[in-house]
Amino acid sequence: KEIQTAHDILCDRTDDAHESLAKILESPKTPLSLARLRRAFSDASKAPQVRVNRRSQWGRTFLVECCAANFVAEAVILRCVRELVERHSADPNVMTCGENPDADRTPIFFAIARVMPSVVKYLIAEAKACFKISVTGRFRLVSDPKKSFHGTFTPAQFARQLKKVELHQKEAKLSCGEKLHPYYLNRLDVIIRLLSDVESKEKNNN
What we know:
By secondary structure, the chain is mainly α. It contains eight helices and two strands, in the order ααααααββαα.
């Protein structure tokens, strides 16, 4: 009974931390920062202990929430990801749950979709994120979140398909006289090269 009670308390603390982080992420006035992330943890029933890999009521882990955060620079997200992995032992391979109709996926897919090379590199090289995992479902475009594509992809396959679809989208916009800033296509190329190198090394080792 004491073990169950302790477990329930820990889960409650984690849910409180998720709630605190959600309040931070929902407003551009309080963008994600390392200090705010730490505060969300420490404010959880005034105790820092949480189950870092427990999903929130929205089906996301803290790591996913940080990778998907809006209104914030990539460097800040990387610092928060490092904090979760190195200080709290966050698992980069925990899938989301309930993203329907979007695909349930691991944090690296969010980092690729947000076109963050440094975060992808860290998740692969330091956090040991699985680059062989395949996910199935709908994925939104970077350039137009209202549009999406479906399929089953590993992280590398997802990055390549994302570039293919985004290039098609770019051509469509240009034909209509619209300008499209391709900065993320260049950064997507960096991610594709990174993941391709990882795949090549894996093949050579086998």
